[in-house]
Amino acid sequence: MFIEVSNLKKSYASGAMTHEVLKGIGMKLAKGEIGVILGPSGSGKSTLMNIIGGVDRGDSGEVRVGGVEINRLNDDQLTEYRREDIGFVFQFYNLVPNLTVGENIEVVANISKAPLDVDEVLAAVEMRDKKRRFPRELSGGEQQRVSIARAIVKNPQILLCDEPTGALDYQTSRSILQLLERVNREYGTTILMITHNEAIAAMANRVFKLRSGEITEEAVNQVIIPAERIEW
Ligand SMILES: Nc1ncnc2c1ncn2[C@@H]1O[C@H](COP(=O)(O)OP(=O)(O)OP(=O)(O)O)[C@@H](O)[C@H]1O
Ligand SMILES: [Mg+2]
């Protein structure tokens, strides 16, 4: 498997207490698959995703990505991994406000080893005509399209999406899900997505349910429903 997490534990200190946020997580995702993580607020979803993405480290256990144990990488290697292999998409877009759409994507392309063409990526998210606009001049859905373009321009192995439709209305959410599906299909990007919306799980190859830092359910979907046909 491309992503293999086993017995991953993570605690945070709060005062004299320690709070175990991940209590021995195990999960796997094959290359080119879409995985969905479901679970209540505070169950550890973002913590798990951040460790897989190399922005945080586990305390113990293993996180293998393409055979590399990323918990054992030194800080420079981890930065390199994050920069080359991982694209992040967040609920609140995190675009740089004083850069145009094109510039937001170019700054990432410029620090990547083998970036995709900026205009190609903008076309893929249907935002080429808004290249010179600033983020404040865009709707939420358009800003999310730009943030997806920014995440995929480096041609990452893995796209990590933390509630990518959390701030969007119904129709816009559905178009963003269709876009993620197209990225998965056209670029072969492995996608791991956190959502609170159980209906979205139908478009995934694998579904992981998290509760209080533990995987309580793991399902492999035999039938995958295209995002276009998912309704809630
Ligand atoms: N940097 C941190 N320091 C201390 N505690 C943290 C830190 N990050 C997360 N936590 C705690 O870990 C637990 C899990 O947080 P996490 O963000 O992973 O939850 P989540 O499942 O993503 O929730 P949500 O759906 O609300 O985003 C929470 O109780 C949170 O307070
Ligand atoms: Mg979260």
TrEMBL record:
<dbReference type="InterPro" id="IPR017911">
    <property type="entry name" value="MacB-like_ATP-bd"/>
</dbReference>
<dbReference type="GO" id="GO:0098796">
    <property type="term" value="C:membrane protein complex"/>
</dbReference>
<feature type="domain" description="ABC transporter">
    <location>
        <begin position="3"/>
        <end position="232"/>
    </location>
</feature>
<dbReference type="Pfam" id="PF00005">
    <property type="entry name" value="ABC_tran"/>
</dbReference>
<dbReference type="InterPro" id="IPR003439">
    <property type="entry name" value="ABC_transporter-like_ATP-bd"/>
</dbReference>
<keyword id="KW-0813">Transport</keyword>
<dbReference type="GO" id="GO:0022857">
    <property type="term" value="F:transmembrane transporter activity"/>
</dbReference>
<dbReference type="InterPro" id="IPR003593">
    <property type="entry name" value="AAA+_ATPase"/>
</dbReference>
<keyword id="KW-0547">Nucleotide-binding</keyword>
<dbReference type="InterPro" id="IPR017871">
    <property type="entry name" value="ABC_transporter-like_CS"/>
</dbReference>
<keyword id="KW-0067">ATP-binding</keyword>
<dbReference type="InterPro" id="IPR027417">
    <property type="entry name" value="P-loop_NTPase"/>
</dbReference>
<comment type="similarity">
    <text>Belongs to the ABC transporter superfamily.</text>
</comment>
<dbReference type="GO" id="GO:0016887">
    <property type="term" value="F:ATP hydrolysis activity"/>
</dbReference>
<dbReference type="GO" id="GO:0005524">
    <property type="term" value="F:ATP binding"/>
</dbReference>
<protein>
    <recommendedName>
        <fullName>ABC transporter domain-containing protein</fullName>
    </recommendedName>
</protein>
